[in-house]
Recover the amino acids of this structure.
């Protein structure tokens, strides 16, 4: 297997199965989620065997990781050589102990995301429902102080969900994060209007495209790093794939942009962007590494064969296009031949008419040469058959008159 195909691009993992907040824009439908199953050390140990197969490793995706009762012990289980692959997102709204803050400071992770929509307490608590701004801010202050004192601490990044109530605050928020809270990047997102999100809330919080564009114009002049991510917008690949109506073509063109694993805190592993829907319980595997390495190998073989099929499909399409072009040429030539044939028939009819006319002229001329009274013959011709003959051919009339040497 080529070097660039020996790992999963992404792994979305949650060490917990719930969250301490109920943000109104959350992608989770909380009416369908009950209880919490924190990952056990045994299950986590099996999951960690997959690290050599992963390019990156999220400790959180849908839920809050810091509510795990043994959070510090869990992150200490991650092997040092793989810690640079690790990142996670926290709402920072559960009071963090000194041990947790020290553990994060010394974690060696790639980076840590902090959800921060506003530094205005009222706006903050309206968006991060269930959070207390004073708890969040105390965590933020302690965390940034500890990270400032540790040159090896992971970089901090901030995620902000744009809405009507915080959009005017964004420039100052980015500046405050960069100057006071060690921000290396502010990621701005638009909330995705999921079916379970209240329509009234969406109406009250959505911002216009013009307002966003005005914000971008302001931020383009900023010296601080920021980026905008629209997870609701489809990529060119998604749009192309959706445009394929033929299921066979969807199969032919299934060349996913990345491969990934979605792992729950219970140890259930789902394959993502791999063309099949399948779940595996990692707790029932003696050697998870070998299983998922083989799955990855088979997937890349599938992609390779799909690429070959796609190339053959393109060759066939090109051949069909050439055949259609040739058929069009043949059709055009056939039409041209038919037109020439019709023209030939017209010319033939004209030739036949001239031939008959010539025969009549010859017969008339021969008859005239046998007569002695040429003037009398001329009068007969002029007043009978010649009248019709000369009507459409005055040149013939003049030629015969000259031949008979008569004046009228």
């Amino acid at each position: 297997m080529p070097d660039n195909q020996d790992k999963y691009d992404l792994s979305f993992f949650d060490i917990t199965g719930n969250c301490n907040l109920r943000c109104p824009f959350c992608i989770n439908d909380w009416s369908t989620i009950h209880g919490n199953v924190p990952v056990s050390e045994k299950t986590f140990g099996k999951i960690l065997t997959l690290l050599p197969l992963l390019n990156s490793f999220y400790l959180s995706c849908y839920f809050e990781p810091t509510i795990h009762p043994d959070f510090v012990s869990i992150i200490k289980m991650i092997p040092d050589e793989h810690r640079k692959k690790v990142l996670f997102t926290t709402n920072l709204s559960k009071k963090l102990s000194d041990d947790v803050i020290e553990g994060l400071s010394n974690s060696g992770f790639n980076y840590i995301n902090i959800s921060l929509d506003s530094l205005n307490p009222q706006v903050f608590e309206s968006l991060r429902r269930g959070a207390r701004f004073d708890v969040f801010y105390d965590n933020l202050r302690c965390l940034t102080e500890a990270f400032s004192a540790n040159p090896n601490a992971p970089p901090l990044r901030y995620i902000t969900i744009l809405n009507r109530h915080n959009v005017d605050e964004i420039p100052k928020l980015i500046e405050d994060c960069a100057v006071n809270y060690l921000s290396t990047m502010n990621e701005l997102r638009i909330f995705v209007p999921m079916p379970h999100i209240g329509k009234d809330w969406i109406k009250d919080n959505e911002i216009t495209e013009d307002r966003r564009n005005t914000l971008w114009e302001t931020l383009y002049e900023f010296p601080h790093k920021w980026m905008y991510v629209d997870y609701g917008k489809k990529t060119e690949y998604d749009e192309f794939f959706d445009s394929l109506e033929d299921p066979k073509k969807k199969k032919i063109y299934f060349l996913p942009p990345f491969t990934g694993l979605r792992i729950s805190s219970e140890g259930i592993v789902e394959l993502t962007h791999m063309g099949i829907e399948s779940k595996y319980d990692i707790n029932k595997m003696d050697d998870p590494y070998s299983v998922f390495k083989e799955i990855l190998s088979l997937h890349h073989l599938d992609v390779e064969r799909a690429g070959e099929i796609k190339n053959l499909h393109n060759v066939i399409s090109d051949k069909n296009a050439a055949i259609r072009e040739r058929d069009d040429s043949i059709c055009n030539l056939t039409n041209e031949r038919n037109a020439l044939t019709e023209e030939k028939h017209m010319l033939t009819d004209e030739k036949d008419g001239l031939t008959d006319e010539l025969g009549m002229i010859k017969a008339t001329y021969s008859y005239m040469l046998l007569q002695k009274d040429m003037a009398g013959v001329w009068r007969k011709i002029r007043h009978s058959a010649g009248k019709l003959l000369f009507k459409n051919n005055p040149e013939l009339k003049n030629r015969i008159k000259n031949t008979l040497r008569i004046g009228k």
